[in-house]
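Work Package 3 (structural annotation) set out to generate three-dimensional models for the target panel prioritized at the project kickoff. During this period the team completed the workflow that converts sequence records into discrete structure tokens, so that structures can be stored uniformly alongside our sequence database. As a representative example, we reproduce one entry of 374 residues exactly as it appears in the project archive.
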Amino acid sequence: MNKNIVACLRRQTTMSKRKRKKEDKLDKIIDFGRQLFAAILRSRTGALTELARLLRFQTGTKGFEREYDNLLPLINSIKEAFRKSVLEKLPLEGLRLGIFDDSDIEKTGKTFPKQKMQHNHSTGSFYSGMKVFSSAVYQNGKMSAVDSCLVGENDNKLEVAKKSVDMLIVDFLVNIFLFDCWYCKNPLIQHIQDKGKLFVSRLRRDTKAEFGEDEERIDALFKNMPHKEYERIKINGKSYWIKDIAFDLKAYGALRVVVSKESQHAEPIFLITNAYNFTSQFIVKLYLKRFCIEVFFKDAKQFLNFETFLCRKECKWDMHLLLTNVLYWAIQLKHSISKTVRAIREDIADCLLFINQNPLIEKFFEELRKRGLT
């Protein structure tokens, strides 16, 4: 037989063996990913230990850690597979909203990544722990938290938010951005407008409006405004009273402000936007969608092991947050995942059965397998 033919056959055999070996390794990693999803659904502090026992890792061995380490090199492939899976489920028509915010994770000790004394703006108290910044896409009742990362004292949250805006525009074709008053800063607003996109945010109450050489806080301007000056609207059967005004704001320049309150004697909130073609009712309705990300943080903490992860390496936290996002997207119902998770989380076998039968998770793993083999 010709030597060249023999050499060619040997190369083909070697390549075939390498391909099978790569396929076998990827299958094991994906199988471990399924098990890991089940442990996250279990939502108990000892869930990962329980999973290690289920996988028959001997006590005191590094088996579980070794399997997790095998998963880490696939993080970029997981992100791409997740992105494609989400895009396939989002409709082609309609406004696509980008939402971002951060949340607290309390941790004691000094060995967790980017851990420090944090300030809780809601309660005014301090705690030891980390902050997680998350970005989400919302369209037609379906929300997906598509990116999450830890932010520490060396991270500028506004710069992190700018990168999130760029990612949401390029990867998910977002039209409008929604965010709370902490991120309502001129550098971020200007960045969004420079990209030619719209935003709706909440203003701080002490924001000042300019009238020639004079200036006044916006909350003071509306403190004594008669209730009859407001227009009544209804959103999802609930009444709101609104006032739509264009202001020259000291920090932001000339922008549209929609003042909204829930009852005659309630304190108003102030929404700022560059969307002039939308009705004031639609502006309020858009901003209410921002609370989807608050529901995500609440559900992830209560039902998806969001806070109980104990690894000390930042790369493992990045993977944990990413897998949490994938799982939340795959199981969420219209408003919350609580009903689904409560029904199965008491038995890890039920969790595994749910993971293996979930079509969105199966689609995600199929996409991951394609990317892992290329």
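Residues 200-289 form one domain.
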